[in-house]
Amino acid sequence: METTTNVIPKMKVEIWSDVMCPFCYIGKRKFESALSQFEHQNNVEIIWHSFQLAPDLKTQPDKNVYQFLAEHKGMSIEQAKGMDDQITLMAKGVGLVYNFDKSIVANSFNAHRFTHFAKQYGKQNEVEELLFRSYFTDGKNIDDYATLIQCGEEAGLDTTALKIALENGSYADEVRKDIYEAQQLGVRGVPFFVFNRKYAISGAQESKVFLETLEKSFAEWRKENPETALEVIEGKVCTPQGECK
Questions:
Q1: Which pTM value belongs to this model?
Q2: What is the per-residue pLDDT across 189-229, written as a single tens digit (0 to 9) for each?
Q3: Hey, where are the domains in the chain?
Q4: Is the dihedral of CA 71, 188, 174, 245 positive or negative?
Q5: Chain centroid to CA 200: how far?
Q6: Closest by CA position to 53, among listed 105, 3, 2, 99
Q7: Rounded CA gap, 211 and 216, in Å?
Q8: Predicted confidence (pLDDT) per residue in 136-194, tens digit
């Protein structure tokens, strides 16, 4: 029997980030804190976009992250440890546990392909969280298919389909498209938050800044999109999840 349901339009908040970026995870938490205080949070759609801080990085499971930072940034091991200690304290302030001594130096391209796979099933936000936790807290190799498939299982995704997608190189173009778009927008670092394609916040700003921007951008978006839900007559459909009903 056909029924009528309402489809409520949502304002888009797009986030460019990299799994290996410590401020991206912190920024995620601060944004989430603001969103939890936002009256119209159910009218906000979050879209994650790919960005690579070190696209030419070779995955090196045996290399200490402090060694990588020392080489990459031209500093001493002691300076790298001191920098990471400060970031660890910052992460602790938003309830996150960073274990840099366990972090595995890894290229993030495959992890980004995984997030695009998850997007097709409405699980992108959950997968981003799992990837951040895997890298910064659990010390897992986010370039390893086994790690990504384990995250997929935890997110409730079809791991067989995920394995096939990873092995055949799927979603590589989507990752490159995100990176190109970031360049066109002038994104020089992440996290980078874009609200309704009108306002942007660069970096892990305080929750107050996110909340103020949410309120301002949403007020303008609402004027352009009056609160009139679309009426949809439901019938037989097939979904991206492979369900036909």
A1: 0.90
A2: 999 999 999 999 999 999 999 999 999 999 999 999 887 65
A3: 4-233
A4: positive
A5: 16
A6: 105
A7: 9
A8: 999 999 999 999 999 999 999 999 999 999 999 999 999 999 999 999 999 999 999 99
Residue 1's pLDDT is what?
42
Average pLDDT over residues 41-46: 96
Find where tokens 């997968």 sit.
Answer: 127
DSSP assigned state of 141:
-
Cα-based torsion angle of the residue sequence 189, 104, 135, 13 in order, rounded to the nearest 10 degrees: 20
State the burial class of residue 228 (Cβ atoms within 10 Å of its Cβ: 0-12, 13-18, 19+): exposed
Taking the C-alpha atoms of residue 109 and residue 215, their distance in angstroms, rounded to an integer, is 34
CA pair distance 76, 94, nearest whole angstrom = 28
Type of residue at 103: S
**Tokens 């995920």 correspond to what residue?**
162
CA distances (Å), 234 to each of 7, 66, 72, 122, 240, in order?
Answer: 11, 55, 55, 20, 17
Please give the CATH number for the structural domain made up of 4-233.
Answer: 3.40.30.10
Q: 182 with 6: CB under 8 angstroms? A: no
User: Cα angle at 28 between 145 and 86, to 5 degrees?
Assistant: 95
Contact yes or no for 132/24 (Cβ under 8 A) = yes
Alpha helices in 20-75 (DSSP H): 22-37, 65-73
Q: What is the token pair recorded at 95?
A: 């309830």
Nearest to 152 by CA among 183, 120, 180: 120
